[in-house]
């Protein structure tokens, strides 16, 4: 089976690597254009592009695939290239570009998407973050036949993954990326023997995983401690939960809920490596902080570097 792959971040790279290891023929990879990153803001290739180049796979990086969009010449060139490779299927994982109708209809078996949720829950851009933030007990991977809706296509395979109490977006991401690589291979093997049984998504239980915005990072101590604790884990590694302390923006990486009370934002206890702050309900023990541009450190060291604690955290 000849597979075109479209994806950009590490989540997609894991699936591409699994397909390559399994021996699928991959004549072409689509990924987003290089973006500036790091302190020097130099152009960086995506993880998918890096893998493709390392393994001699041709790479295309159009800004858009819309023939009537802002980059019609790039879209037309991509269309010509896709037609020339004559793929049986396109596998899509966190590509980041909208696939127009001509793209969905071009391969013989259409386009299969690796989505990191149990659809129809958490359609959209940030399903891993939102599942943790919402306190879901489980998430998973859905292999979906793509249509023109937002993650609305028929489901082909689905597998559940438990969300552990200590999971962050980073740790859950890694397990789901591995699971996605395994399931897409199963899906393609089923496709090769005509074993697909597409299942329409339920009309109940639809939720949308909106993109994570930096503005969401600021901690509101008026919220219940359990809500804040989930957000801290959901926003690790990006954008990182933050609060103001003596004029500095501090990132908070590890917390736990404790049975204590006080005015929201009040520092109830600060000794050793434990800082306990009152919330709207119960309190939060802050375990790992980070000053701007610094390494993640234990609370005691961070507080000594920043200075005296205020009675309330801003």
From TrEMBL:
GO terms for molecular function: methionyl-tRNA formyltransferase activity. Keywords: Protein biosynthesis, Transferase. (6S)-5,6,7,8-tetrahydrofolate binds at residues 117-120. Attaches a formyl group to the free amino group of methionyl-tRNA(fMet). The formyl group appears to play a dual role in the initiator identity of N-formylmethionyl-tRNA by promoting its recognition by IF2 and preventing the misappropriation of this tRNA by the elongation apparatus. It catalyses: L-methionyl-tRNA(fMet) + (6R)-10-formyltetrahydrofolate = N-formyl-L-methionyl-tRNA(fMet) + (6S)-5,6,7,8-tetrahydrofolate + H(+). Belongs to the Fmt family. HAMAP family: Formyl_trans. GO terms for cellular component: cytosol. It comes from Aquabacterium soli. Residues 211-303 form the Formyl transferase C-terminal domain. Pfam families: Formyl_trans_C, Formyl_trans_N. Its EC number is 2.1.2.9. It comes from the Bacteria. This is Methionyl-tRNA formyltransferase. Residues 1-188 form the Formyl transferase N-terminal domain. InterPro entries: Fmt, Formyl_trans_C, Formyl_trans_C_sf, Formyl_transf_N, Formyl_transf_N_sf, Formyl_transferase-like_C_sf, Met-tRNA-FMT_C, Met-tRNA-FMT_N.
């Amino acid at each position: 089976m000849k597979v075109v792959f479209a994806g950009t971040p590490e989540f997609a790279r894991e699936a591409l690597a699994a397909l390559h290891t399994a021996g699928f023929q991959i004549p072409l990879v689509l990924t987003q254009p290089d973006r500036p990153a790091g302190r020097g803001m130099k152009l960086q290739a995506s993880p998918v592009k890096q893998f493709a180049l390392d393994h001699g796979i041709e790479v295309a990086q159009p800004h858009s695939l819309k023939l009537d969009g802002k980059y019609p010449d790039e879209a037309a060139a991509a269309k010509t290239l896709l037609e020339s490779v004559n793929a049986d299927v396109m596998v899509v994982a966190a590509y980041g570009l909208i696939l127009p109708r001509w793209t969905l209809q071009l391969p013989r078996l259409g386009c299969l998407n690796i989505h990191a949720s149990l659809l129809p829950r958490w359609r959209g851009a940030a399903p891993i973050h939102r599942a943790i933030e919402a306190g879901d007990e489980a998430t998973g991977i859905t292999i979906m036949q793509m249509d023109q809706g937002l993650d609305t296509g028929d489901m082909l395979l689905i597998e559940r993954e438990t969300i552990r109490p200590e999971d962050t977006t980073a740790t859950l991401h890694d397990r789901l990326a591995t699971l996605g690589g395994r399931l897409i291979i199963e899906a393609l093997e089923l496709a090769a023997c005509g074993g697909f049984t597409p299942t329409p998504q339920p009309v109940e239980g639809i939720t949308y995983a909106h993109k994570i915005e930096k503005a969401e990072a600021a901690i509101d101590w008026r919220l219940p401690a359990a809500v804040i604790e989930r957000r801290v884990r959901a926003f690790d590694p990006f954008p990182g939960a933050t609060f103001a302390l003596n004029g500095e923006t501090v990132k908070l990486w590890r917390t736990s809920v404790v049975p204590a009370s006080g005015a929201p934002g009040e520092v109830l206890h600060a000794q050793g490596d434990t800082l306990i702050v009152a919330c709207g309900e119960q309190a939060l023990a802050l375990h790992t902080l980070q000053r701007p541009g610094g390494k993640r450190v234990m609370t005691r060291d961070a507080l000594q570097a920043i200075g005296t604690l205020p009675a309330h955290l801003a």
